[in-house]
Sequence to fold (484 residues):
Amino acid sequence: MAQDGFKQDNILTYRMTGNDLSDAIGSRSEFHPELTKLLASRATGMSINQIPPEIVTRAKHSFLDWIAVTLAGWSDPLVQKLIAYCDDEGGRPVATMLGEGRKTSVSHAAVINGSASHALDFDDVHLPSRVHPSAPVFPAALAVCERDGLSGEALITAFVAGVEIQSGIATVMGEAHYGRGWHNTATLGTFGASAAAGRLLGLSREEMQVGFGIAATQAAGLRAAFGSMSKPLQTGRASANGVMAASLAKAGFTSRTDVLECAEGFVEVEGAAPGDGAVFAAGIETLGTGLFHTRSIIFKFHASCYGTHAPIEAALRLRTLLGGQPPRSVQVIVEPQYLSVCNIQTPGDPLEAKFSLRHTVALALMGRDLSGDAAFCLETITDPAVVELRSRISVTANGAMSRACARVIASTTDGSEHTIESDASQPEMDLSLQGRRVEDKFRALCSAHLSPSRREAVIDACRNLEQLGRVQTLIDLVADRREA
Fold:
């Protein structure tokens, strides 16, 4: 619903238009004077009664999806290396490593579960913030809930608070943060995890501001790490650092209470320049609309970087159009940013394959299943048929192309040309359909970890998550391997 001076774009955020910007911000070039306070108030004031039923449902879908990708990612070598490291470090066993079924410290559980959930790059996405929302937030919230015996209602509230804060900061930061090479899931996710943990710990608004100050000193992560084990690690560290920030704030640790808007603060150092009033005014106004950013969460049904999903969908449609016959040449057109995100020309390992437009489009054109690890294993990467088809695929950028959209053009041996456009930017509005797809994804990914009866019990528990008196009940269903 549009407001005066605003228009709603296709990803459910608001942006100012025309001269309304200058009218709104006047001659100001500095940051909003109480941004940190504003966000802290939103986080501490969040309650289940204030969250619309639709958002509660989306949060429950996110939790089930997060469990699925966490268990599926557990066998990745990076997870086993982290477990070995954390075991050597030791710690009070109060929070469960989901894929192990045993407990470790809160911070270790957060970093391990968080890294595992991002290992396959199959977790949910939030395009407006460029954050994978669940991976940094749920591990932090779940570990605190388990240690403190908290409820499913508390977990949902903490998750929504975390997503709203990391997404709100992204709105104020604008595109400059990601454009400079920062990994938003790691940097902004640190604030999301801090907000979620702080909400569960009962922080006051002032303590939450301090927590954000502590989070800001730890928020890090580079896009240069994409395609390596360090990308999931950055996400896991964001979760653990968020727990640390909230816990220290609760204990009376000190930091700035205006870390977002102060001179040389987080937004100035890692975002746009202070004079970019358009970005800040639009972002601040968005925070005041009552809009839930959680509504924009999108789920993945291909196990690769989300930048590859629109091209994959277009390629699948082209395959049907061509009757399964391989094209002579293929051109993939995406937004310019994806050339530096998921355009590894010749992937050398499974992690790189998930960030290769040429590889994923080739597999889609061949009718391969991209919902599991088989599509990205070394045998597939080096398959002569896949390599040959990859060589006929070119990737170019068009500045007019919207994010998560693509145009794929296939030329055939008879000289004809076929073009398919695909838009993967929209969240699903049919929540019943979304729920069924997420549940099916959970069943498929967890078949090696949980028995059929256990899988259905977990699904049922997530459907009724807000009614669980203790989250531990659900954790036990996931972690118990006796029926696997």
Summary: The first strand starts at residue 6 and ends at 8. The first helix runs from residue 20 to 25. Residues 306-423 form a domain with the 60s Ribosomal Protein L30; Chain: A; fold (CATH 3.30.1330.120). The two ends are 48 Å apart (CA to CA).
